[in-house]
Amino acid sequence: MQVTRRFIQTIELLLAVLTTSALLCIIYHQSFGQRSFPYDQYYLRQGELPIDATDSMVNLDAAWFHREYHIPQPTFSYRSEYVKNLDECTILSEDVAAIGYTPPCISKNALLDSLSNGGRIGLNAPYHSKGCEMWWYEARELCSVWAKYSKVIFVGDDVLGDVFAGMMALIRKDKLDGAVRRWRYNSKKNKDCTCEREFIDHNLCQSVVIRNIKDITDYDPILVKCMPKVKLQMHYLPRYPVDPVEFNRFVMTAAEDIQHDRRPIAIIYGHGHGSMFDIGATASWISTLRDMVQNIIPYDGLVHELFVTPGATGPQVSGVNTLQLGLKASHLFEIAMRSWGREENVDVLGTWNATVQTTFSADGLRSGLRVNLLKAMMIANWLDLVNPGSD
User: In sequence order, what are the residues at sequence separation of 6 or more whose Cβ sits closer than 8 angstroms to the Cβ of residue 352?
Assistant: First the structure.
């Protein structure tokens, strides 16, 4: 009996020693040891976070984390993100851009330089940036980017209007007809305004392409996965001098609620074809809009501006228009506008390299779905990096 009692005491002593040693090891590793970051767990948690429509702060942001630690985005298919009508419009993110090979850009200057100087390895191949990479946002992450701003205003011509529509397709997770308003269809012919054709055939589809965020929130609220309280609008001012009616609408949009919402404003300019690539006319066009904005905004430093070049023109530009609107003219226009932007402190996103090796556009005005998704994602990256303080 006494031997058994001693044996039990010995076992209890050994268990106590082992427990104490384990606790000491845990304390040591937590205090002094190198702690690894549970990436997989983090990614799942941040993907499930709800986004409050009244709050512009998102604590766990995938793009911010990867940029902060210079981690490339994983190369995986966003098939799960864009599941709606995938069988009828089989364009995936990897068809648009090659992402996941180098670290994402961590500053807006590095981003603009990398995106403007990137290109394609082969005709209609996925786009590659030159240097750091942009981030490919999911719809939920796009909302956290927009929530930094009280309004994001697109102002310009048809080329930029299609980019705006491409951004609507991204937020609706629907590439088949996410850029059009099916509830506006007035004839059977509109049923063909899907996928690539909704951008390429302007005569058929222009009347049903989305031009205002209210087109979604008022008529198609179910498809809005997450929508911060931000105004996204497209204003058509394709020529210089500007049309007074559209100019007045632009002024009213820029001035609306500026006293109550202190978040910054972002203005995306797009111009070129309407001025026949006249650099002076485009510069004057932007200056006119900038002067107006500066006069109506009662505070400084809260307006971020980006000029998006129209890109390369296509083979249908020929004859007498070749010198003014041909491939060389569009390239020289972009080079000049990037130089002008540096002098005038306006960010410029060059898209000539991103569009020159594509057959989606015959004249440079109709660029197709893949090009417009690409440009929309480029602008989203700029919006994220130009205003990082709101994270």
Answer: 309, 311, 312, 330, 331, 334
Q: What is the 3-state secondary structure of the chain?
A: CHHHHHHHHHHHHHHHHHHHHHHHHHHHHHHCCCCCCCHHHHHHHHHCCCCCCCCCCCCCCHHHHHHHCCCCCCCCCCCCCCCECCCCCCCCHHHHECCCCCCECCCHHHHHHHHHCCEECCCCCCEECCCCECCCCCHHHHHHHHCCCCEEEEEECHHHHHHHHHHHHHHCCECCCCCECHHHCCCHHHHHCCCCHHHHCHHHHHHHECCECHHHHCCCHHHCCCCCCCEEEEEECCCCCCCHHHHHHHHHHHHCCCCCCCCCEEEEEECCHHHCCCHHHHHHHHHHHHHHHHHHCCCCCCEEEEEECCCCCCCCCCHHHHHHHCHHHHHHHHHHHHHHHHHHCCEEECCHHHHCCCCCCCCCCCCHHHHHHHHHHHHHHHHHHHCHHHC
Query: Rounded to a whole number, what is the largest CA-CA distance in the chain?
Result: 112
What is the C-alpha separation between 8 and 174, in angstroms, rounded? 68
CB contact at 8 A, 91 and 370: yes
Distances (CA, A) of 49 to 57, 139, 287, 370: 12, 13, 41, 29
In CATH terms, the superfamily for domain 137-390 is: SGNH hydrolase (3.40.50.1110)
User: C-alpha distances in angstroms, 331 versus 239, 243, 356?
Assistant: 20, 27, 10
**Cα–Cα dist 84/86, whole Å:** 5
Q: Which residue has the tokens 């180098």?
A: 102
Dihedral pair phi/psi, residue 348, rounded to 5°? -130, 125
CB 310 within 8 Å of CB 351: yes
- CA 237, CA 211: separation in Å to the nearest integer? 13
The string of pLDDT tens digits covering residues 213-250 is 777 777 776 666 566 666 788 999 998 888 888 888 88
- Judged against a pLDDT cut of 90, whether residue 108 lies above it is answered with yes
Please state the separation of Cα 115 from the chain's center in Å. Answer: 12
- Of 61-70, 106-115, 143-152, the one with minimum mean pLDDT is 61-70
Whose CA is closest to 73, among 95, 104, 36? Answer: 104
Contact 312, 352 (CB under 8 A): yes
